[in-house]
Structure formats: structure tokens, C-alpha cells
Design a protein that fits this description.
heterodimer; A: mainly alpha; two-stranded antiparallel ribbon; B: ABC transporter involved in vitamin B12 uptake, BtuC; 16 helices; 6 strands; globular
């Protein structure tokens, strides 16, 4: 996308020019740009705050619900980032990933597999399906460069049609399936809703910390084993780092056998009062590391005041947790462990990807396909990989979503996924060409906050919960319309300036 | 073989496939012994019912805004016009005062209000689309969705008195409002001219309770039951559609119309000829929106019900798919595309329902077919026109 790039450059130059001519305005200018860049988020935050005040809902209930919903939907929203990196815009086609997940869920439930084992089987079935679908979507998008968003949207509807054909006619009609619990009387088509209670419900949410630790150990053992094998075969040198990681994990796992610690690890939830300081500690360490690295090797893009601000903010938040009212609020919230671990893992993956060669290629393709092709990057292949990854992640996201919801609405569960995920991402301040983990997480929080509050607020304001509900739907469509329009608008402006020159 | 290839190229692959599918379906339907007069009158009725909505695509494409997924703006304007007209008619007791003429008056008022609103909304929408050149389709899709969602709030907040429109209990308007006691079927239903209708009168106007209204038999030519065979020719509807087509055709032959399609075909060339391209696009969008408003009123009068709330959400997709099926592209659309496309699209859906019911007992099959065909054809058209050379 050469146009927005050019636009950004022009803006940056203007910004530099501004700061150079009046250095006094530096900070106020900065605050202004900061506010302007986050306008959607700020407006939304005010909206949520106002709606909350009107709704008269219990703060504790709202906060608890928000954390549940982040666990439920966060993964799917984060799955949207990779196509944005690759310049393919907002991937409305994640519906197709969700469809792959639902086919797998149906198969697993139908074959009566339950619990975590059943979920793993679902992952095993869904993954190749999602990769295949993602490959096809990527191939199709390569035929429609520049129209990926509208194509993705319509492709989602098209896939929904095929999905309905599969579930309404083919299952039972062509593919033999007779179980009366899931098949409509008459033998053709799958029932409207499938209850996952007792089969897959909470199969991810209820994973105990101790099992997670075991899983981590097994993973590290396997990885180290493979590396050792390669070392013995003289194909790759075993590094000291690998052994250290193995040792650390092994020791950590050994610690879990200490009775005093062990009894805490049988829980499947972690209290926010434990999780929050951990998170704050992570933020502080990360920013300190960044400052340290920068002092050794200065980086022009590094923003030192911002890092210091984050550290100060973390400390402040930590102090605030000792305020009794807040403390009791925080203590009342328990987070399911594995979903949050998975969300954290995906954030790390998204960040890590950008540091790999593939991620850099995606960035280049996203900025200009011509430049990317000229520098020897296989543009089409990179784009297909981006779509495959996004579809796969969306598929896993849908698995997390369905096991948490507990009822698999056969013909409706996937319909709004793309819509809501995209709206949530945009609410966090992302745009068609730029999105980060932070924006995704803030977005999913704010969007679902409004989700929870709007019906109550509508009820209090107009005496009708339905109005709040409609308002919420309007906001989710509206925010997408607005942000697409603003993006197109901004993209057009620099073009005009250039032609005017 | 080359002759065959040429033929395929000329007709277009999707039209060929869907067209043969349509013919096969009709043959199967007749072979199954389905009632032919009913089937064919259903096809004609639905063909005409959707055709004005599909016609609304033509000015949009000609003026260069592409496929107007934002036709929902016109649709909600039309619905707004219709509900206001029905409420005015009810509160003022038009049926009590004017008898049979009241239905026509309501229809005309609905059209008048709808045209005024949609022209204004369309102009504003055109200005927006001028700001987002190159991304019109994505933006217009979501503008369309937002407009439907916004109107949901309006529908639920309107406090009307007409019992046909409002919920019996609670507040706001109904999901589906019957037009039985208004302009429903005037242009397409022979029953309207055969037997009188009983219409509730607003208590503030008179305490008669209800009046019986009979449309004059002399107007019966508007909806003919040919030889009482069950084959209905909705002549009124056909005439209205023909009139709309004529207006669009005459407009496209006029000086402004030629400038408009020139703007759509080559912006820079048109600009260098001193034509204001942006104004032409606004005009095109506006006309498209107005046709959408008229289209939904005609749709509702044929269907017999006003569908509010989320019912028109995907109507834009149906219209877009129909015109593409008729052979239009993102940059070129003609009236013939509208006529052929709507016939094929609606024809298949009409025939598919009874056939599917006979063969396999899945009532949702036509809906599934609709989703697959409409979105498949849009995808096909997008892949053809963009062709990977956008940037």
C-alpha cells in the first residue's frame, strides 16, 4: 500500500517541522497527537463510563463479566493482527476459521469424546481444516488484491451458506449420522443447538495449573530431546541456552512437588490479586530492559519518556491495589488460567513473528507489494501464509469461545464472529493498516464492557432493554463504518496533494 | 468448439450455469406435477417485486460508485415513508372519509415522503462516497448495516397509534406490519378487486369501529387472474417497473445522464472535459437511493407486509447479486442486466422451494441456495474485475 505510507511520511515531516519551529509546544503538541491518535478509544471509554453510571449495575458483576469475556473472545480478536501486518486489512474472513472449529467440535461431540482429551482431538481435527481453508482464502484474496475486506466479508457469508448446506442437508442426508441427540427427527440435518455440558464445556477453562506445568515440562522435554537428537546426528549444535531452559523448567516442576506450593496448584483459577502484580512486574521488567538496551545501543524509535511513564503507571496501579475498596473488588475476580495463558502466548507470538524473517516480509508486503516483489519476496506466498495463520488462530479462538459458552448454537455461533472481532479491534484504536496487541486487548475490553452495560443502560434511560441492545449493535456497525471511512479518507488526501503538486 | 466457447463468453459462465439450473429446476418442477399456473405467477410476482430494488444498482454503477451495498439507506427511507403515510392515513381516518381512494392516497404519500427523504439521504451519502473513492464498496456495506441498526432504534422508539403498525402490548413498531388495511396488493393481488376489505377506523375520527372498502372493479386490470386459472399477471407492478426503467433509460440518454456515465467510466477524462465528477457521483448515488426507496415500497405492497428491523439487512446483497447475475460488472450495468438477473435469481428461489419440498424434506434449502448463489456470484464478479492489478 504505497499511498498511506506516503501520507504518513508527509504527516511525519509536518510533525517534525512543527516541533522544530515551536519547541515550547512540544509537550502540548504531543498530548494533542496522543489524544487524536486514540480518539476512538477515548470516545468509547467515555461512552462506557456514561452507560455504566446510567445503568446502575454492580461494579463487581460488570468487572467479573468483562474478564470472562476477555478470556472468551480475546484470542479471536488477536487473530486479526497478522493480516493487518501483511497489508490485507481487517480479516472478516475469520468466520471461516470459526467454521473449521465448529465442524471439529461437532465431530468430537458426536463421537462422545469429552474433557481435555476431547478438546485436543478437536484441535487435531480443526487445525488441518483451518490451514486448508486459510490456504484457499489466501489464494482467493490474491486474485482480489485491494478488495480483501469486502471479499472477506462476502466470503464469510458464502462459507456460511456452504456450512449450512453441510449441516442441514449433508450430515444425515449423505454422511451417515443417526444419533437422535444431535440429528433432527427425520434423520437429516443437525439440531439447532448442541449442549456441551458434560462434554467439552470448560474443558480449557478448567485445566489445573499443575497440569499446565506438566504440559510445559513435557513440551520442553520433547523440544530438548529433539535438539539433542539433532546434536548427536551432528546437524545442529546444542547450545548452552537450551540446557539452561531445560534445567530451569525441570527445577520449577520439581518445586511443584513441595506440598505447601502443590496445594495452590490444584486450582484452575488464579485470583486477580495474584495475576495483576505479575502482569505489572512484567510491564516494569520489559520497560526497564528496553531502557537498558537503549542505553547500550541507542535506537531512534525508542521513546524513553513513554517507558518511564509505563513503569510509573504500573507502580501506581500496584499501590492502588492496597486501597481497600479496590482490593476487595480485585480479590473477587478469578481468572481461568489456560485461556489467559493462551492469550498471553498469542500476544508473544504476534510480537515474536514480527522479529522473524517471515514477519519482516509481511511488513514489507504490507507497506508496498511492488517494493517487496522487487526485493525478492514472494508476495503471494507471504499473503497466503498470513491468511493461513489468521484462519488457524481464529479457529482455535472459536474453540476457546465455544467451550466457555457451553452451548454450541449450530447455525449462529460463527455468524457475528468476524463482525464483533473487527469492531473490538477498531474500538481499541487500531486501523485498517495498523494494529497492535495492546489495541486488541483494550478494544476487546471496552467493546464487551459496552456489550454488558448497554441493555441495562437502555432499560434505565428508555425503559426498554431492547433499545440498549440495538444501540450496541448500531455502535458495532457504526464503529466499523466510521473507521473504514476515515481510513479511506486519509488515504485519499495524500493522493490528492500529490496530484495537485 | 470455438463456436461454443464464443457462446459461453458472450453469455457469461455464471449466467450459463445458473440459467441452465433454472431451466432444469422448472422441468423438474413440471415433471413432479407441481401446479404450473401458480408456479409461473409466483415467478413473475417475485421477479417484479425485486426488480426496482435491483434497478437501483444501475445509476450507482454508471456513476462510478460501484455496487451500491448501501442501498439499505434507500430501503429504510422507503420504510420510513411507508410507516409515516400509514400513520397519517390512520389518524386522519382517510378510509372513513375517502373510501377506496384512501389506499391509493396512502401509497402516493408513502412514495412522496420516501422520495424526498431518500433524495436527501442519498445526496449526503454520495458526498461521503466522494471522500472514500476506491473503498466505496467496503464503506457502503457498513454504512448500510449501520443505517439498519440505527433505524432499529427509531422503529422501537416511534410511538404510533395505528394498530397495524404498533405492538399490541409494549411500545414501538412491529417486526412485520400487515398492509392488509392499507395499500397492500393494490398493484398485484386480484383479490383486492374481488372482495371488500374491512378496515379499522381510529376511535378519535369516528366510533363506527370499522368500514368495509371495495376497490373499483374497473381498476381490476392492474392485477389480472388470467382466465381464472390461477395464473396472475400483476400488470400494475409491471407498469410501475416499466415506468421506472423508462425514466432511468431516458435519463441515461439525456445530457446529464451521458455525463454521469462518462464520470463513472473515466474520471480524469471527464474532469478534463469540464464535468464535475463529484457532482455526477452524488447525483448517481442519490438516484440509486431514491430507486431503493421506491423499490422497497413496491416490494412491500406486493408482499403484503412491511418488514422492519433487521429484515432488510441483507437486501443490498440480494440486489447486488441479481444485477451481477444479469451480466453487469462493477463498472458497467444496464437495464437488461437488471431484467435478466432478477428473473434468474428470483426464479430459481421461487422454484427451488416447492421442488426441494417434494424431493428432500428440508425447508431451509432455498434459503441456503440463496446465500450460496448470491454471495458466490458477488465473489466471482469481484475476482473478475479486480484481477490482481489494483496496485
Amino acid at each position: 500500500m504505497p499511498c498511506p505510507k506516503r501520507g504518513e511520511e508527509i504527516k511525519d515531516e509536518q510533525k517534525i517541522a512543527n516541533t522544530m519551529t515551536n519547541p515550547d509546544n512540544n509537550i502540548s503538541e504531543r498530548i494533542k497527537t496522543l489524544l487524536f491518535d486514540n480518539k476512538v478509544m477515548i470516545v468509547f471509554a467515555f461512552l462506557c463510563f456514561g452507560a455504566f453510571m446510567v445503568s446502575g449495575m454492580q461494579l463487581e458483576a460488570v468487572v467479573a463479566e468483562v474478564f470472562t469475556r476477555i478470556a472468551r473472545n480475546g484470542f479471536t480478536v488477536l487473530a486479526l493482527l497478522i493480516p493487518v501486518f501483511a497489508g490485507m486489512g481487517l480479516n472478516f474472513g475469520i468466520v471461516i476459521g470459526a467454521i473449521a472449529a465448529q465442524i471439529a467440535i461437532f465431530a468430537v461431540v458426536y463421537w462422545r469424546f469429552t474433557g481435555l482429551g476431547g478438546m485436543m482431538l478437536a484441535v487435531l481435527i480443526a487445525t488441518p481444516l483451518a490451514l486448508l481453508f486459510g490456504y484457499l482464502v489466501g489464494k482467493l484474496f490474491n486474485k482480489m488484491k485491494g478488495a480483501e475486506m469486502i471479499a472477506g466479508l462476502i466470503l464469510g457469508y458464502f462459507a456460511d451458506g456452504l456450512y449450512q448446506l453441510l449441516f442441514l442437508v449433508l450430515i444425515g442426508g449423505v454422511i451417515p449420522a443417526t444419533d437422535p441427540r444431535y440429528i433432527i427427527d427425520g434423520g437429516m440435518g443437525v439440531k439447532n443447538a448442541i449442549d456441551l455440558t458434560g462434554s467439552l464445556k470448560y474443558s480449557i477453562d478448567r485445566v489445573k495449573i499443575i497440569d499446565l506445568a506438566l504440559g510445559l515440562l513435557i513440551l520442553v522435554v520433547v523440544i530438548t530431546g529433539v535438539k539433542l537428537f539433532l546434536h548427536l546426528k551432528k546437524k545442529r549444535q546444542l547450545e548452552r541456552k537450551d540446557l539452561i531452559i531445560f534445567a530451569v523448567v525441570a527445577i520449577l516442576y520439581a518445586i511443584t512437588y513441595v506440598p505447601a506450593i502443590e496445594k495452590h496448584l490444584f486450582a484452575d483459577r488464579i485470583n486477580l490479586i495474584v495475576a495483576l502484580p505479575l502482569f505489572l512486574l512484567f510491564v516494569v521488567i520489559r520497560n526497564l530492559l528496553a531502557i537498558y538496551k537503549n542505553s547500550k545501543k541507542p535506537d531512534p524509535n525508542f521513546n524513553r519518556p513513554r517507558s518511564i511513564f509505563y513503569i510509573a503507571l504500573s507502580v501506581l496501579v500496584y499501590i492502588l491495589t492496597y486501597v481497600p475498596a479496590l482490593e476487595s473488588l480485585i480479590m473477587s475476580i478469578n481468572l481461568p488460567v489456560l485461556p489467559y495463558v493462551l492469550i498471553t502466548g498469542l500476544c508473544a507470538f504476534n510480537n515474536g513473528l514480527l522479529n522473524t524473517r517471515l514477519g519482516q516480509n509481511m511488513r514489507t508486503v504490507g507497506q508496498s507489494q511492488t517494493v517487496a516483489a522487487a526485493s525478492g519476496i514472494n508476495v503471494d506466498r507471504t499473503r497466503v501464509i498470513a491468511m493461513m495463520l489468521s484462519t488457524l488462530l481464529a479457529c482455535w479462538g472459536q474453540l476457546i469461545y465455544l467451550q466457555n459458552i457451553g452451548t454450541f448454537s449450530t447455525y449462529g455461533a460463527h455468524l457475528q464472529i468476524g463482525q464483533f472481532a473487527v469492531a473490538a479491534l477498531l474500538v481499541g484504536g487500531a486501523s485498517v493498516s495498523k494494529a497492535t496487541n495492546k489495541q486488541a486487548l483494550i478494544g476487546v475490553t471496552l467493546f464487551h464492557l459496552l456489550f454488558i452495560i448497554a441493555p441495562q443502560a437502555g432499560n434505565q434511560l428508555f425503559g426498554d432493554a431492547q433499545i440498549g441492545e440495538y444501540f450496541r449493535v448500531f455502535v458495532s456497525y457504526g464503529v466499523i463504518a466510521l473507521s473504514l471511512a476515515m481510513h479511506a479518507w486519509q488515504r485519499k488526501k495524500p493522493l490528492e496533494e500529490i496530484t495537485a503538486d | 468448439m470455438t463456436g461454443f466457447k464464443k457462446f459461453v463468453e458472450k453469455v457469461g459462465l455464471p449466467r450459463l450455469i445458473i440459467g441452465s439450473f433454472f431451466i432444469v429446476l422448472i422441468i423438474v418442477a413440471l415433471a413432479l406435477g407441481l401446479n404450473a399456473p401458480f408456479l409461473f405467477s409466483d415467478i413473475i410476482r417475485r421477479w417484479m417485486m425485486y426488480s426496482i430494488l435491483v434497478l437501483a444498482m444501475v445509476p450507482g454503477v454508471q456513476s462510478g460508485i460501484g455496487l451500491n451495498f448501501g442501498i439499505s439507506l434507500g430501503v429504510v427511507s422507503g420504510l420510513l415513508g411507508a410507516v409515516i403515510a400509514m400513520e397519517v392515513s390512520f389518524v386522519n381516518g382517510w378510509f372513513y372519509h375517502f373510501g377506496a381512494g384512501a389506499a391509493w392516497l396512502t401509497l402516493l404519500l408513502a412514495l412522496a415522503i420516501a422520495i424526498v427523504i431518500s433524495a436527501l439521504v442519498g445526496a449526503a451519502y454520495g458526498m461521503l462516497l466522494n471522500r472514500v473513492k476506491g473503498s466505496e464498496m467496503t464503506v457502503s456495506t457498513y454504512v448500510g448495516f449501520s443505517s439498519i441498526a440505527l433505524m432499529n432504534i427509531v422503529w422501537i422508539m416511534l410511538r404510533f397509534k395505528n394498530g397495524q403498525l404498533k405492538w399490541p402490548i409494549g411500545s414501538g413498531l412491529r417486526n412485520t406490519a400487515s398492509l392488509q388495511e392499507s395499500f397492500g396488493g393494490l398493484l398485484s393481488d386480484p383479490m383486492v378487486y374481488e372482495s371488500p376489505r374491512s378496515i379499522t377506523v381510529y376511535a378519535d375520527v369516528s366510533d363506527v369501529g370499522s368500514v368495509s372498502v371495495q376497490q373499483p372493479k374497473s381498476l381490476g386490470f392492474l392485477a389480472i387472474d388470467v382466465n381464472d386459472s390461477g395464473f396472475v399477471l400483476p400488470l400494475g407492478l409491471i407498469l410501475v417497473f416499466a415506468l421506472c426503467c423508462l425514466i432511468v433509460w431516458l435519463f441515461s440518454r439525456s445530457k446529464t445522464g451521458i455525463a454521469l456515465s462518462a464520470a463513472g467510466e473515466n474520471e480524469l477524462f471527464t474532469l478534463s472535459n469540464g464535468i464535475n465528477v463529484d457532482r455526477m457521483r452524488i447525483l448517481g448515488t442519490s438516484i440509486s437511493t431514491v430507486l431503493g426507496a421506491i423499490g422497497i415500497i413496491m416490494y412491500a405492497q406486493t408482499y403484503g407486509f412491511l418488514q422492519l428491523y433487521n429484515a432488510p439487512l441483507m437486501m443490498g446483497f440480494t440486489a447486488v447479486a441479481s444485477v451481477l447475475l444479469g451480466g453487469a460488472t462493477v463498472t458497467r450495468a444496464r437495464i437488461s442486466n437488471v431484467i435478466i438477473g432478477t428473473l434468474l435469481f428470483q426464479g430459481i428461489l421461487t422454484v427451488a422451494l416447492p421442488v426441494a419440498n417434494e424431493l428432500v424434506n428440508v425447508s431451509a434449502l432455498p434459503e441456503v441456495t440463496r446465500i450460496i448463489i448470491s454471495n458466490g456470484i458477488i465473489l466471482y464478479a469481484l475476482s473478475k474485475t479486480r484481477g490482481g492489478n489494483q496496485r
